[in-house]
Prior knowledge:
The protein folds into 2 domains: 2-27 and 130-272, PK beta-barrel domain-like (M1 Pyruvate Kinase, Domain 3), CATH 2.40.33; 33-120, no CATH class. Helix content is 12%, strand content 34%.
Amino acid sequence: MRISDLFIYPLKSARGIALPAAEIDAHGLSGDRRAMITDPEGHFITQRELPDLARIALRPEPGAFRLLIEGRPELSVPPPRPDTRMDVTVWKSTVSAAVADPDSNRRLSEWLGREVRLVFFDGQARRTANAEWAGEGTPVTFTDGYQILVTTTGSLKALNADLAAHGEGSVGMERFRPNIVIDIDEAWPEDRWAAIEISGIRFDLVKPCSRCIMTTQDQLTGSREVANPMPAMGRIRMSADRRVPGPLFGWNVTPRGSGRITIGDTVRIVEERPEGWALKVRARA
């Protein structure tokens, strides 16, 4: 089995960028979720409440960050001053983040039709993952909770087969916003993987990913008038473990080293959990 796709999402909840290769460090893929949009009080905003974020792309460039949205002139955001900061919240975490300049925030607010702030996870920002799952002192950026999300092509194929059997269309992998996609024919093998190795780097699969309304949105337009994977996940992927309730797709992963990974790299299983992950068994009609 090999890596088939690599993605980063420089601006949390906005469009992803496909990469041929990626640098890995303790925070995950370099450049992933280093910026975020918040309300004026610093509470994070995602596509869950603002679907139009799917229309925004952030491109890091030398000396600036380039923001793009259809129908608007692009916005070049200068690097934030490290002494211009605010406390922001991401779920249960509070992070000291650098804030974009006032003009960039004004223009971005005009784009989105509400007052917002653009903030950055810079060298002074600190946040750690849940120690119960990832271990003590494991650093993360503005991700939902862990460094990396891994999905597999075989699992997407199985999900789409259930959707098709019920006349519900099909969905692409972009709906699940993975960082690393692994090409394998088998469905749901990741439930049994405790750790994998890619290019000499160990990646621990620490927690399955429970899914939300974002999977129902087109990742270019934000529209919810598209095929919906939630019914299929409800039929075949409902967690039976109270610690991670809801429908599951993909695994949260913590890297235990640094280096470079590339599309086409071999993925090797180095540790397994034979029991897999407990799922609810749906009643047959």
